[in-house]
């Protein structure tokens, strides 16, 4: 992997970063052993950038990721977490947290908090769960319904924490483009973590967010490149944005797969590499719940894709005419 420095900071990210939501038992349980093996495989494959959040498994993801990284040389990896949800102990016997998507006991509840104190408290509590003395990047996590507090309280506090050296880079992580575009335009954030809005099926970030980010020198990390499953394995019943995929999107995904396969390219490889063609995109964030998934992803993101395939996708109307696409180096390796 070839790290890219975030603008204004010494923080670096890889072309492929490991998202640790699955290590928090997203949708179904992952054993401690499998979680550790996933991070071990990522390290062995050269991944040195990792992302987590308190929301993921009510802190389980942070604890597991911290356990796996704590013995690694701290200067050799970067770690991001998020603020906006504080975890508070729940009274009474816990049920389960499956309503929020995680197969963990609901021992705690999430409390939305984008206040000045809430942001600092969240980072301090994350450091305790991680067992580390610092994180490299902190994102405002899904502030969709808290826009005013996010801009007036949470962002200025992150800016202060960056100036203090408590965090390296600051940003916002969302699955929409309008509010991140405002953050890019009106604040001094370093990075946007954008989920699902810049993929082979959804290029809505092209309208404003990515051009603004390129103009302002703000890095963008793209998550959700498979749009929650449809681009990983398009078939009836596949999901798009965590709901059953509409028929027209399933048809489009099937057409994408067919054309990619005529060039000998797996659709998943095209989906992983496509965002890297935009100059504002610093890397792709991919969730994995097993060592095998990590190994597969690192192979796919490095596999050669001929420029002719991208041209064919444009020619068949499966990509817009002007969308930027990855250009391989002469040695066939992705830049």
H/E series, N to C? EEEHEHEEEHEHEHEHEEEHHEHH
Task: Tell me, briefly, the overall form.
Answer: globular
User: What class, by secondary structure content?
Assistant: alpha/beta
The helix tally amounts to 10
How would you state the average pLDDT, rounded?
A: 94
Tell me the total number of β-strands: 14
Largest β sheet strand count, sense and barrel closure: 8 strands, parallel, barrel
Q: Which segments are poorly predicted (pLDDT under 50) over 5 or more consecutive residues? A: 329-335
Task: State the helical fraction.
Answer: 25-40%
Distance between the termini: 10 Å
Strand order within the widest beta sheet:
3-4-5-8-9-10-11-14
Summarize the structure.
By secondary structure, the protein is an alpha/beta fold. Helix content is 35%, strand content 19%. The chain has helices spanning 32-44, 60-69, 116-130, 147-164, 178-186, 209-216, 247-262, 267-273, 291-302, 307-315, and strands at 4-5, 12-13, 16-19, 49-51, 78-83, 85-89, 108-112, 135-141, 167-174, 191-195, 219-223, 239-240, 243-244, 281-287.
Output the keywords:
335 residues, alpha/beta, eight-stranded parallel barrel, two-stranded antiparallel sheet, 10 helices, 35% helix, 19% strand, disordered C terminus
Secondary-structure blueprint:
Layout: E1 4-5, E2 12-13, E3 16-19, H1 32-44, E4 49-51, H2 60-69, E5 78-83, E6 85-89, E7 108-112, H3 116-130, E8 135-141, H4 147-164, E9 167-174, H5 178-186, E10 191-195, H6 209-216, E11 219-223, E12 239-240, E13 243-244, H7 247-262, H8 267-273, E14 281-287, H9 291-302, H10 307-315
Parallel strand pairs: 3-4, 3-14, 4-5, 5-8, 8-9, 9-10, 10-11, 11-14
Antiparallel strand pairs: 1-2, 6-7, 12-13
Helix pairs in contact: 1-2, 1-9, 3-4, 5-6, 8-9
